Amino acid sequence: MATDPYHLDEFATGLAELTTLVLSTPDVEASLRDIADITSRMLPNHPMVAITLRRNGDEVTVASTGPHATLIDELQRSQSLGPCLEALRTATPVEVPDMAAESRWGAYPARMLEHGIRSVHSHPLLIDDTAVGTLNLYSTQLEAFDSAALQAISLTTQHTAVLLGTAISSARQTELTAQLRAALASRSIIDQALGITMAQRHCDRDAAFEVLRDTSQRNNVKLVSVAADLIRAVTGGDPVPPHFNLPARRRPARRDS
Questions:
Q1: Predicted pLDDT at 1
Q2: What pTM was computed for the model?
Q3: Which CATH architecture has domain 180-235?
Q4: Tens digits of residue pLDDT in 94-141
């Protein structure tokens, strides 16, 4: 059993720190390292903590309380077996209260015991009910994670998932904005080429578009490339991309002294 008492004030302080991180930090990876440190600090016996995320089909330790925690977290990946990977696969918490009595995952328990690890808890990080990673805790104590500790771990993973969800949403929005800009830039170039074609051939927009499309299909070149080449041939310079005005950040309201 855990030898250190569970201190409610330490948990409250740690949870407040986690909330501040989620609401204020722009640096996700640095925040994950802070989350690992805070989680370790607020739990009995201060277990080692590592955070694993799934990236492009692979599981990567992105943050931990130190090199030893990272090493331990990565041990299971050599054989693709262990509580972290099972928590990722099942999207449910996986607990090992006594590593010496564990029979799952092949040679994994023996390897953990060699590193002095007696108990493990892996908790999935869920975004829209899908596990995108895990919060993994490693202790040298037998049955280190009691009900109070498990509650703290659960709340910690919820905060961490909020942070990750916000980061993923921001990345998707950035990608969407880039795609929209590229689409608008292409549209602008095509519109310029249509205007040139209409003037050269004394035709309407639909007929000009057919001219550009036929050239594109005949030469197996994208329509925007055909349009850009036409603009260069006529003007002697590259097409001018459209200008995008970014919304200015609001300045905080001044307070009267």
A1: 44
A2: 0.59
A3: Orthogonal Bundle (1.10)
A4: 999 999 999 999 999 999 999 999 999 999 988 888 888 899 999 999
Task: Please state, in angstroms and rounded to a whole number, the distance separating the CA atoms of residues 83 and 98.
Answer: 13
166: which 2 tokens? Answer: 């916000």
CATH hierarchy code of domain 8-171 = 3.30.450.40
How many residues comprise the chain?
257
Task: Summarize pLDDT for 208-256 with one digit per residue, the tens.
Answer: 988 998 998 999 988 889 999 999 999 888 887 665 554 444 444 444 4
CATH 3.30.450.40 in the chain: give the residue spans: 8-171
